[in-house]
Design brief:
The chain is built from seven helices and six strands; from the N terminus they run ααβββαααααβββ. With 191 residues, it is α+β, with helices and mostly antiparallel strands. A three-stranded mixed beta sheet has the order 1-3-2. The chain has a three-stranded antiparallel beta sheet with strand order 4-5-6, covered by helices on one side. The C terminus is likely disordered.
């Protein structure tokens, strides 16, 4: 199957359904265990090295930057799980982690997969729907789910029934738009 955003969302939701998290923040270690991956925090990485995954002797390993905030490490684990589950080759060297406008599609799909795991639809949507539409609400949800404000804002726009858009910009130029719809599955326009 050729991968696209919807495919990444559906595969992530399959994993969420199998693991069946019932509380938030979702323990990402449970996802890793289900996939058969071992998480290895590394203390010797620089600030621009978020993490990577590799396979050795039939076992998957996910390395994270132990110097990063816990929210960043959690996202990195889920992003690397996406590479494993979706079978997408890592292209981290081809782009900067902070620039959506310059990221290859496979890396964006892994980010979408990661957000689905960190902010699972069944747990996140009810919390998002109860929130007022504001940046403060997104910050609060991000703190409660231990996710970044960027991932939470994009996910918020994707799941709430109220029409809205979450816009990312880089140096004053639109880098991404997530347009909200009530179905919970979105087609985003990045770039």
């Amino acid at each position: 199957m050729a991968m696209d955003e919807l495919g990444a969302v559906l595969k992530a939701r399959e994993l969420v359904k199998k693991v069946n998290p019932t509380t938030f923040p979702v323990p990402v270690e449970v996802y890793a265990q289900h996939v058969g991956a071992v998480i290895r925090p590394q203390t010797d990485l620089g600030p621009d090295e978020l993490g990577w995954s590799f396979q050795s002797d039939g076992k998957h390993y996910i390395c994270t930057n132990a110097n990063d905030k816990p929210e960043r490490q959690r996202f990195t684990v889920c992003h690397e799980l996406a590479h494993i589950v979706l079978g997408l080759r890592s292209d981290h060297q081809a782009s900067t982690w902070w620039s959506y406008a310059k990221r290859p599609p496979a890396e964006i799909w892994c980010d979408i997969f990661a957000a689905e795991l960190l902010l699972p639809y069944g747990l996140f949507k009810p919390q998002a729907e109860k929130s007022l539409i504001s940046l403060a609400a997104i910050d609060d949800l991000a703190a409660r789910f231990r996710a970044s404000t960027t991932a939470t804002g994009s996910r918020y726009a994707a799941v709430v029934s109220t029409p809205l858009a979450f816009v990312l910009s880089e140096q004053g130029v639109k880098a991404g738009v997530k347009v909200g719809q009530s179905s919970g599955v979105k087609v985003s326009q990045w770039g």
